[in-house]
Design goal:
The complex is a heterotrimer of chains A (about 270), B (about 325) and C (about 300). Chain A is α/β, with parallel strands linked by helices and about 270 residues long. Chain A has 11 helices and 10 strands. Helix content of chain A is about 40%, strand content about 25%. In chain B, helix 4 crosses helix 5, helix 4 runs parallel beside helix 6 and helix 6 packs parallel to helix 7. The longest helix of chain B is centred in the middle third of the chain and has 18 residues. Chain B is globular. With about 300 residues, chain C is mainly α. The longest helix of chain C is centred in the middle third of the chain and has 37 residues. Classes of the chains: A alpha/beta (about 270), B alpha/beta (about 325), C mainly alpha (about 300). At the A-C interface, helix 3, helix 4 and helix 7 of A face helix 1, helix 7 and helix 8 of C.
């Protein structure tokens, strides 16, 4: 456990994380075009906080989320979960990690398998990790559905994604992410494809879940205002580098980095003359 | 002078579930040189209006009733041949995903030149080039980039090229449908400023469609708020955004997060999706409204004039002006 | 009410399918042949004279024109041609459908594994597929037949299937590649699902419709190959098939003397393969992605 982790009680810590993409080097080309998506990231996320990662497209924010849920591997650097290095895991250790770190995806129309019913989607993590017996799993799914606002759970149990609206589908995605009661959830732009009136409901839901389960969230977004509303602390990322980290209020009121200042300046607002 | 006047327009889509009235009996008008914004969430019909104004409604859609008066003609009755004469020339559109509107195998300059020569086939090459240069200057793309291919342009430049293409023939009316949604916040700011500048300089009439109320507030002088195919409130932007009266407008504004939002924002309850089937004369928001009046879904609430420019499609109880 | 997604998709697809003129025609023709195939089970019960293989009319010793007792006439040893035609329908369906089914099973499995695994497995499997795809199946079968003598019908079915799976696997592999990075697949990976689970529970249902489409094409090719083999004399001599009938009419020198014998089997082969082809084309319209889109209202 690093000293910093011990001092700040970081649940997730990244040290010197670098992610490079290099095109296939074949026999015939000596191509050296590497794309550096993440450039030596150092970051710590405290237990129980909602941590915002704000950046525009191409900034590397999605890549960081994917690294944390192990959809991709870091090229260099270390990731720590509760002080233990988890950068390269396989087999049982990877499975264990997966039960503690989950993800909510951006597109509610693509993140649910159209051939599976709602219950089958939410049951999958339970099945994969062999948790409980059939009756217990049923209860857990019903309970989780109601936690995310799809009440009564029995009514939604056998439905299919195409029968639900975008906001409801996203609630199912959230249900799937929390059913194992993980410690850490990466929410990758969970509301960017939803209307504002629905997005705000989901933000309240995420806060309620955090309070109820003491879960930690990484909230990835391009919308600084949403991050300010939802998050305790915010990191601003630009072209693979973290340019500023601070509490939400401080970032907005006392931005230090010119890029942060620019982001604040260009927020569309209601200017009445 | 009124350049565009829409009266009681209804547009329906033929779907497996029956007739979906995406636009339900709307009326509005636009003065020459002014900008009008349409704001609403998904399914409200704003994009359908944009397509109708360009004659680009899909095959399964039809104008059910109403008129679109533009330059002395009724666009709702236009044939494809008539549309081809005015599309691009008198009415032009700036689309959302600009990257897809540019043909990747042709140079950008060539594509914009084509937009010019389609409607002005007799122009000499010199004149066309002059016009190209004027356009590129207007949208602030360096002339040296005229002969580049679209993939060599950044996202913001592509969008500016699309704006140049829309302006190629100096149209009287420009319809912009979510032109900045796919862009970076910083680039979005540049493009919005660009659009405002051009609109003022060319005294162009603009219809701006977006789901983002702040973006619409930046660009437009007048606003129409739409819900489920109906206009629920219209007025100047100060009136609509500073003193919203319709319950939906209030909900929409309350859900908008800005940098100076409070911690306690009113979070609406889960809303029912409105039923778009069939033509109905009542208020489609009534199923989600807190108002005590029970009649709104059947009996048409009327247009209530709040000021000479500001009106809301609601009942007295809904506006909170009368206890029921 | 629980409506399984498969059933729902089927119903949706059916409505589109049945409006398509190709689908309607194809289905109708297929139906007629199906009835013929079923009828072939009852024919021998009418009388031993009507058995397509062994039945001979005691009164007839040569090939005869259609008559009341023999609707299509008889072949040169007095066997009823109509009975043979019906039997041929049965054989065509069996050969066509089994061969297609086996090649689809192999092709889909290999396509999914290849597409999902990627890397060296993908390269190896696809190179094997390429090699097989390039081989001319009819020629191979002829060569094998001339080495090993005449084959049993099931061996023929099997060999056709083995030679024909690559085309299916290529399509399924493409589809798998595009599905691999879809969010719902990634969500399963994040949940901890194993690769096998993802392939069979998530990818397979999404590629099965395509697999069924390609099955219709495999049926046509299997029927044609079997007919060709039989015509050339390498088919299963204990089975009456349309190709066999053509072989006999040719071998016994009746090609130009007995049109009632020559024409029906040829027409049947063409019509049945055409029917399956039409089915495939109509299914294509059903499966076209633009119809499959689910989005906001």
């Amino acid at each position: 456990m690093t000293e910093l982790t011990k001092k700040n009680r970081f649940i997730i810590e990244l040290k010197g994380i670098v992610k490079e993409y290099s095109p296939q080097k074949s026999f015939f080309s000596k191509c050296d075009n590497r794309v550096i998506a993440l450039n030596s990231i150092d970051l710590g996320i405290k237990k129980g906080e909602i941590f915002g990662l704000v950046g525009q497209s191409g900034s590397g924010k999605t890549t960081m989320g994917r690294l944390l849920v192990k959809l991709e591997q870091a090229t260099h650097g270390t990731i720590f979960l509760n002080g233990n290095p988890v950068t390269n895991l396989t087999g049982k250790a990877l499975n264990n990690y997966r039960s503690r770190v989950q993800m909510i995806f951006q597109d509610p129309y693509q993140s649910l398998n159209p051939y599976l019913s709602i219950s089958e989607t939410i049951l999958e993590p339970l099945n994969v990790h062999k948790i409980g017996n059939n009756d217990q799993r049923y209860e857990k799914v019903i309970h989780t559905l109601e936690t995310v606002g799809l009440s009564p759970g029995k009514e939604y149990y056998d439905r299919y994604p195409h029968q639900l609206s975008g906001g409801q589908r996203q609630r199912v995605a959230i249900a799937r992410a929390i059913v194992l009661e993980p410690e850490f959830i990466v929410a990758d732009e969970p509301t960017s494809m939803l209307d504002a009136t629905i997005a705000i409901q989901l933000f309240r839901l995420l806060t309620q879940i955090r309070d109820k389960f003491n879960m930690t969230f990484l909230f990835i977004t391009h919308n600084l205002a949403a991050a300010k509303y939802l998050c305790d602390r915010i990191a601003v990322i630009h072209e693979g580098n973290i340019v500023e980290i601070n509490t939400a209020d401080e970032i907005i009121q006392n931005p230090q980095h010119p890029y942060t200042k620019k982001l604040i300046q260009v927020q569309p607002g209601f200017h009445f003359n | 002078m009124t350049i565009l006047s829409v009266e009681n327009l209804s547009i329906g889509y033929n779907t497996k579930k029956g007739l979906l009235t995406a636009v339900n009996n709307i009326s509005f008008s636009l003065e020459h040189g002014r900008s009008l914004g349409f704001v609403g969430e998904s399914g409200c019909g704003k994009t359908t209006i944009g397509m109708a104004l360009m004659g680009l409604l899909p095959e399964n859609a039809a104008i059910l009733s109403g008129k679109i008066h533009f330059s002395g003609e009724d666009l709702s009755r236009f044939t494809e041949k008539q549309w081809r004469n005015i599309r691009g020339k008198e009415i032009a559109m700036i689309f959302q995903a600009a990257m897809n509107a540019l043909n990747p195998v042709f140079r950008v300059g060539e594509q914009i030149a084509e937009a010019i020569t389609t409607h002005n086939p007799d122009l000499s090459t010199d004149k066309v080039n002059d016009r190209l240069k004027t356009l590129f200057n207007m949208v602030e793309i360096p002339e040296s980039r005229m002969s580049d291919f679209p993939h060599e342009y950044s996202g913001g430049m592509k969008q500016r090229a699309i704006i140049a293409m829309a302006l190629a023939c100096s149209p009287k009316l420009v319809v912009a449908d979510e032109p900045t949604t796919a862009l970076d916040v910083i680039v979005q700011d540049q493009i919005l400023k660009e659009i405002k500048k051009i609109q003022k300089a060319m005294n162009m009439s603009l219809i701006f469609i977006s789901h983002d109320i702040a973006v619409v507030a930046e660009v437009c002088e007048n606003i129409c708020v739409m819900y489920a195919g109906q206009i629920v409130e219209m007025g100047t932007k100060q009136e609509v955004f500073k003193s919203p009266k319709h319950p939906y407008t209030k909900t929409l504004l309350a859900s908008y997060l800005s940098l100076d939002s409070d911690e306690d924002i009113f979070v609406p309850d889960m809303m029912e999706t409105p039923d778009l089937t069939g033509i109905n004369t009542g208020c489609r928001f009534s199923v989600n409204c807190n108002c005590k009046s029970k009649n709104c879904s059947k009996d048409a609430p009327g247009w209530i004039d709040l000021t000479s420019t500001h009106k809301a499609f609601c009942c007295e109880q809904g506006l909170g002006r009368k206890q029921s | 009410m629980r409506k399984n997604h498969y059933i729902m998709r089927f119903q949706k697809g059916w409505k589109i399918f049945i409006k398509n003129p190709l689908g309607k025609t194809g289905l109708f023709i297929l139906f007629v042949f199906l009835i013929m195939a079923f009828a072939s089970f009852f024919v021998p019960h009418i009388g031993p004279m009507y058995d397509p293989m062994t039945g001979t009319d005691p009164n007839i010793k040569v090939s005869t024109y259609p008559s009341l007792s023999h609707w299509l006439g008889t072949d040169n040893v007095g066997r009823d041609l109509f009975a043979q035609l019906l039997e041929g329908a049965k054989v065509a369906f069996i050969v066509g459908l089994s061969s297609a089914f086996i090649s689809i099973v192999i092709g889909t499995a290999i396509g999914m594994i290849s597409g999902y695994a990627g890397g060296i497995i993908d390269i190896l499997l696809m190179r094997i597929a390429d090699i097989i795809m390039v081989m001319p199946s009819l020629v191979i079968l002829l060569i094998l037949a001339s080495i090993f003598g005449q084959f049993n019908i099931w061996i023929i079915v099997f060999i056709i299937a083995i030679l024909r799976w690559p085309a299916v696997s290529r399509i399924i592999r493409s589809q798998t590649l595009s599905l691999k990075h879809r969010p719902f697949i990634e969500a399963s990976r994040v949940a901890g699902a194993s690769n096998i689970r993802i392939i069979f529970r998530h990818i397979m249902p999404n590629v099965l419709p395509l697999a069924f489409l390609y099955m219709t094409f495999r049926v046509t090719s299997a029927i044609l190959v079997e007919a060709a083999l039989s015509f050339l004399g390498f088919g299963d001599p204990s089975q009456v098939s349309w190709g066999m009938m053509l072989q006999w009419v040719w071998k016994t020198g009746h090609m130009f003397q007995a049109p009632y014998w020559l024409i029906p089997p040829g027409v049947c082969i063409s019509l049945l393969t055409l029917a399956f082809y039409m089915l495939g084309r109509a299914m294509d319209e059903v499966l076209d992605p633009r119809l499959r889109k689910e989005g906001q209202a």
